[in-house]
């Protein structure tokens, strides 16, 4: 029986690379975009997950719009929290309801362990996901968090259009590390930061 994998934020470059790898290895994959499953909307999540009942959940949906906290854009702050943190909890809790043996792979960010002046909501929500993952591991679940550093995605290109693309992590290489997590090659509760500089070493390990 094929294991079923649900990837949130299915329109992103990381989700697409991971979907291709999973299908090559014979997994059953569902990767809904935000129009199919809104991770901030409990009814939307319930409708998607109740029909699919995944064995593995990859919490990949993310949101970042850098802004100084001094500018006090409450809607922007709320959106960061709702997608990056709320969405992880809502999707995980609903998926666990249908499959108590669910494996959880959270896509974090190097921003969870780095400071960026205008990224406070993003950094804080990603750091919270790391801590939640460690708590879930202590709660007898298989949960790991794999955090990309600077990665060649549409989202990053929109933020840093003039960045040297050769210095960025390839989505496919990051997806290969996610595959190791999906195969349970990492101890539950593990947090791994993946960068262009260390990805080949991680893949050989």
Query: Helices and strands, in N-to-C order?
Result: EHEHEHEHEHHEH
* Main sheet characteristics: 6 strands, parallel
Output the number of helix runs. 7
- C-alpha-based Rg, rounded: 16 Å
CATH class: Alpha Beta
Low-confidence stretches: none
Task: Output the CATH homologous superfamily.
Answer: NAD(P)-binding Rossmann-like Domain
Helix content: 40-55%
Which term fits the overall shape? globular
Question: What portion of residues belong to β-strands?
Answer: 5-15%
Number of domains: 1
CATH architecture: 3-Layer(aba) Sandwich
Cross-sheet strand order for the largest sheet: 2-1-3-4-5-6
Overall residue-averaged pLDDT value: 94
Assembly of the depicted chains: single chain
The CATH topology is Rossmann fold
> What is the rounded distance between the termini?
28 Å
Number of strands: 6
Structural class per helix/strand content?
alpha/beta
């Amino acid at each position: 029986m094929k294991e079923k994998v649900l990837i949130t934020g299915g329109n992103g470059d990381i989700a697409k690379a991971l979907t291709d790898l999973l299908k090559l290895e014979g997994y059953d994959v569902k990767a809904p975009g935000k129009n199919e499953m809104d991770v901030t909307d409990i009814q939307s999540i319930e409708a998607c997950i109740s029909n699919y009942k995944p064995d593995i959940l990859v919490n990949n949906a993310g949101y970042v719009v850098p802004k100084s906290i001094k500018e006090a854009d409450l809607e922007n702050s709320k959106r960061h929290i709702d997608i990056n943190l709320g969405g992880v909890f809502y999707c995980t809790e609903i998926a666990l309801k249908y499959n108590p043996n669910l494996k959880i792979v959270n896509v974090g960010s190097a921003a969870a362990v780095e400071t960026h002046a205008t990224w406070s909501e993003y950094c804080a929500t990603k750091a919270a996901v790391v801590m939640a993952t460690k708590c879930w591991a202590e709660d007898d679940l298989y949960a790991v968090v794999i955090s990309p550093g600077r990665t060649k995605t549409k989202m990053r290109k929109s933020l840093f259009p003039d960045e040297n693309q050769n210095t960025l992590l390839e989505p496919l290489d990051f997806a290969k590390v996610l595959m190791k997590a999906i195969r349970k090659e990492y101890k539950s509760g593990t947090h791994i930061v993946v960068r262009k500089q260390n990805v080949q070493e991680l893949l050989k390990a």
